[in-house]
Design brief:
single chain, alpha/beta, 11-stranded mixed beta sheet, 11 strands, 15% strand, globular
């Protein structure tokens, strides 16, 4: 296996569409990224048969046979118990743990992926559970994306988990968004201090009174997530996942409305032809394929969670995002930030002030 290449472990059997989507995405990414070597985990015969459809040189990949594919309906505990040794998902994650791969990409069961990531890779710096960070499109011309977390790893979040997310999100945006001082906010039903659940209000007070973050911008309402008032939006996995799926449904619905209205009459069709370049640009801004690839962070290694219903193009973008995360040394930055701030979080939560180092 080449050691001078970026090595990406692929869970070939994961996702709603399985191997036909993952292999198509791999082959498309291989054309654009000659520096990447792929470790393909799954049923060997199925992988070989699917690869025959594409012109991918054999020195670009290795096949690692795994009998088991974790279904999208499998409970996380069952996935860990049954699939920690024989599943394609576990094999891809273990490749990172064993330093055979630099990063893992899977479109499989989210709960199982988070659970196996925690069991196999472990977490860093006393983080309770890994967290999913999601890139979010913006309508600002000079800003590519915001970050929202948690996007579905943890339905509930304790105060410590919320503080961990703030530090992880800040580090993530520094590396990927090239923001020297990312602005971090807590998603809430209003900007006022008195609104929201007790956990959110307590975290808000702690962040206002302590220098945990470089820039804390307070409570943020969900309608601000597309704008430029904040760079990192923090919430629990239940709310985060609901927001993502609502946004995807809204974007799909708007596209259907526009398409149907264009077909209504000749005038609408002519107008649409004149406006086509603009309409395509708007469509790309909210195209879920382009923002595919949430990242599971907080573990001792990087794992990319591609959408379960990913298209080949969407899975391809997840792989491109994986290479960018690795090239930009995201894991090293996260590790450094958590090392620097974990004691501050601990002291704040135990109602103690961090001791000052004497010069």
């Amino acid at each position: 296996m080449p050691h001078n290449k970026t090595r990406i472990a692929i869970d070939c059997m994961g996702g709603d569409h399985g191997i036909c989507t993952t292999i198509a995405g791999v082959c498309q990414a291989a054309k654009e990224k000659p520096e990447v070597f792929f470790l393909l985990f799954g049923d060997k015969n199925s992988i070989v048969n699917e690869l025959q459809k594409y012109d991918l040189a054999t020195d670009r990949y290795s096949i690692h046979h795994k009998d088991m594919a974790i279904s999208m309906q499998e409970k996380p505990a069952n996935a860990v118990r049954k699939g920690v040794k024989e599943s394609s998902m576990a094999g891809a994650i273990k490749a990172v743990a064993d330093k055979q791969a630099d990063i893992t990409v899977s479109a499989g069961n989210t709960g199982a992926l988070v659970a196996l990531t925690k069991v196999i890779l472990k977490t860093i710096h006393d983080i309770d559970r890994p967290i999913i960070a999601s890139l979010w499109p913006t309508y600002e011309k000079d800003k590519d994306f915001n970050i929202m977390m948690d996007a579905g790893a943890n339905i509930h979040a304790s105060e410590k988990q919320m503080l961990d997310m703030c530090v992880l999100g800040e580090a993530f945006q520094k590396v990927i968004g090239c923001k020297n001082i990312p602005r971090v906010g807590i998603l809430n039903i209003g900007a006022e201090d008195i609104k929201g659940h007790p956990t959110e209000r307590n975290i808000h007070t702690l962040l206002m009174e302590n220098d945990i973050l470089d820039s804390y911008c307070g409570f943020m309402e969900p309608n601000k997530i597309y704008g430029d008032m904040c760079d990192v939006f923090i919430t629990n996995g239940y709310i985060g996942n609901m927001i993502i799926k609502t946004a995807e449904g809204t974007a799909s619905g708007l596209q259907s409305i526009v398409t149907n209205r264009i077909a209504d009459n000749v005038l609408n069709k002519v107008t649409a032809m004149l406006a086509l370049p603009f309409l395509l640009r708007v469509k790309n801004i909210f195209n879920p394929d382009l923002y595919n690839g949430g990242i599971i962070i907080g573990a001792n290694g990087l794992v990319i969670k591609s959408h379960g219903h990913s298209t080949p193009k969407g899975f391809y973008y997840s792989i491109l995002r994986a290479t960018k995360f690795h090239d930009n040394k995201l894991m090293e930055t996260i590790d450094m930030q958590m090392e620097k701030k974990k004691n501050i979080i601990h002291h704040i939560l135990t109602k103690k002030k961090p001791s000052k180092t004497k010069a």
